[in-house]
DNA sequence: ACTATTTCCTGGATGC
DNA sequence: TGCATCCAGGAAATAG
């Protein structure tokens, strides 16, 4: 399940492979499940464009597009991988795998393919893409603290809210809360300044470590080159229900908050 | 203005 | 072995 570190890894890999390429043609499956854009809009915006580069915004992969040989971006192609989405760069000879919903043929003969078995992913186009929320790795401590002011929702839910912080998903929310020593059910507004500062540092540390390790490969995540990440080996609570806490040996607990599994150590987190 | 709940989707795991 | 059921989760939609 791609969150910020996985999407960052994928976007970097894609940029390395397809930056500068022209888009020759686009094929969209029957139900590409576009977010805000119709199939017609996607085809219209992508045609005759060149990919300037690929970057990550929150959990979105953003392809910056220029007209013809131009150097200024005039539109963006935005891909959200959802739960099971994959964006792969491959040669035209490779047989398309099941659940391929979009194929973009590039000038070099290579192709970008969007594959998504569970269909939670979304494709869209925009001419002025702006995401809600702030980037957790760019935000200042003061702004970070202000995000949670007056919020009665559990801190876990607040971390998952993409309109506040963008890019943090279930794994990194749990791992950050563990490292900050904060229970997931605590009301966001009840956290002290000191606790929020710990959380701020924990979020940034966890995300940076995960990016350095190529993300977490749970279920079937692989990056743009088909490589697995290694941060799952550093998970301290996520997916470890019943197993001993790596700090104090207390069994890790799991509860459901906002419909999401939340893992924490009842002893280390207060 | 917030917050909580439901919905979408399918592969894999579990249970009988 | 095979079939039914449950579960995972991001974010939009809906309800409160």
Structure characterization notes:
With 270 residues, this protein is α+β, with helices and mostly antiparallel strands. 25% of the residues lie in helices and 24% in strands. Helix 1 packs parallel to helix 6. The longest helix is centred in the C-terminal third of the chain and has 20 residues. The chain is elongated and about 55 Å long. It binds a DNA duplex (16 and 16 nucleotides) through loops.
Please name the defining characteristics of this protein:
270 residues; alpha+beta; 4-stranded antiparallel beta sheet; 6 helices; 24% strand; DNA-binding
Which helices and strands appear, and what pairs or packs with what?
Blueprint: H1 4-18, E1 23-28, H2 39-46, E2 49-57, E3 60-67, E4 73-80, E5 86-91, E6 100-106, E7 110-115, E8 122-126, H3 141-147, H4 155-160, H5 170-180, H6 193-212, E9 253-257, E10 260-264
Helix pairs in contact: 1-6, 5-6
The structure holds a DNA duplex (16 and 16 nucleotides).
Q: Main sheet?
A: 4 strands, antiparallel
**Termini Cα gap:** 27 Å
Structural class determined from secondary elements: alpha+beta
- Residues in helix, %: 10-25%
Would you count the extended β strands for me? Answer: 10
Low-confidence stretches: none
The number of distinct helices, counting runs of at least 4 residues, comes to 6
Mean pLDDT: 90
Strand order of the largest sheet: 1-6-7-5
- Describe the global form: elongated
Radius of gyration over all CA atoms, rounded: 20 Å
Order of helices and strands: HEHEEEEEEEHHHHEE
Estimated share of beta-strand residues? 15-25%
Précis, in short:
25% of the residues lie in helices and 24% in strands. The chain contains six helices and ten strands. The two termini are 27 Å apart.
